Amino acid sequence: MVANGNGRILIVSSVSATSPTPFETTYGPSKAFGFSFAESLREELRGTGVTVTALLPGATNTKFHANAGMADTPIGKAMKNDRELVAKQGFDALMNDIDHVVGGDDATKQVVIENRKLTETVKAARHAAIARIGT
């Protein structure tokens, strides 16, 4: 892409990138890596014609929670964002050279805003309360 002077890269991260994720202990950090990687790569590629966008969806209507054995947790039972909406938001951000976008409804976007204000300890406890299997 750099040799051709153009291209677009969309990296799917997650709202979980903005908070500790107890009971999804490898998921959240891997999504935080993806978000940081996207922002770093975007800067490295500045001026080359290649853009990078990170998509941070919230809980989305997929089989994710069922496959993770979390269907009966509060987060597994909660309302989910429409996957077509999330995909469109990511695509639109990619095509408009936006560095990152929170995918989903206004409540999902509000979670990210709140996560900027809360301590890591508070965020970890909040996530544990909705992700613990058997709650």
UniProtKB/TrEMBL annotation:
Gene Ontology cellular component terms for the protein in this record = membrane
Q: Does the keyword Acetylation apply?
A: no
Top-rank taxon of the source lineage equals Bacteria
Alphabetical UniProt keywords: Oxidoreductase
GO terms for MF: oxidoreductase activity
For this UniProt entry, which segments traverse the membrane?
A: none
Give the matching PANTHER family: DEHYDROGENASE/REDUCTASE SDR FAMILY MEMBER 7B, SHORT-CHAIN DEHYDROGENASE-RELATED
Q: Which family does it belong to?
A: Belongs to the short-chain dehydrogenases/reductases (SDR) family.
Give the protein's recorded name. Short chain oxidoreductase protein
Instruction: Tell me what organism the protein belongs to.
Output: Sinorhizobium fredii (strain NBRC 101917 / NGR234)
